[in-house]
Amino acid sequence: MRINLMIEGQESVTWPQWVDLATTAEDAGLEGLFRSDHYQSVASRTERSSLDAWATLTALGPLTQRIRLGTMVSPTSFRHPSVLAKNVVTADHTSGGRVELGMGAGWHELEHTTYGFPFHELGARYEVFEEQVEIVWRQFHEDRFDHQGAHYTLDGCEARPGPMQDQLPIILGGLAKPRSARLAARFADEYNTVFPSPDAAGERRAAIAAACEDAGRAPITFSVMTGCLLGRDEAEFRDRAARLHERSGSDAPLDGWLDGLRGEWILGTVDQAAARLEDYAAVGVDRVMLQHQLHDDLDMVRLMGELVA
Question: Model-level pTM?
């Protein structure tokens, strides 16, 4: 099981904290650092802040040596596909070829209205998303192409330089519904699903594998993003849980709040978390992105490294 750190960057993660998180993740032996791509708190806490995702990852490239760097995920409503592709390729060059691109249609309406991004109804957003995925993929893989679509027109596009990697991974995701699965089978290198139980993860992986078979492809990488809270013992785990419970603003008692997370999150001691990861591995999950919401707590990043060990 390949283990990655995932950080919700829109919840006031500062630049010094990004540097500490990246270097600690690398020292701990984690495979990569992924971050959300939001301009505003998804908890609608407008006093919280966010640095731009691709500017952050581009700057972290030269400060790290090994870890993968990517987004979970970049909304296609924020950027023209050519701008997104250029940002990703630039980060790939500054990192020496260690970048991955997660793409999504965008869902958080408040940040769109606040910053002036278009927020279409879901069907139109997904149409834009599908077209963007194709354009970005072609800029990564083709020397020159034309594109005449419903939303974008490109004439004689020669996107140079290309990525440093021969195959810069594109990650798509969702609940593995038919439309999403078909798009992933056509363009993606990986499919990611969020907060599933092990049983749900197995069902979604089977749907993606079937879509790949229909498209004449071998199964692509299948990953899970989910929340994570760890402790060296029960007392440390509960202390960390209490801090996150307070930060979340939940009115539920701590134990009731934790009970609501147990079906989907990775919780407990390192041994308990490792056993839970084995449940995901058993249904075909190739790697996980562990969401760490106490981003100022570097010791828990080191505990994630013990999961790798």
Answer: 0.97
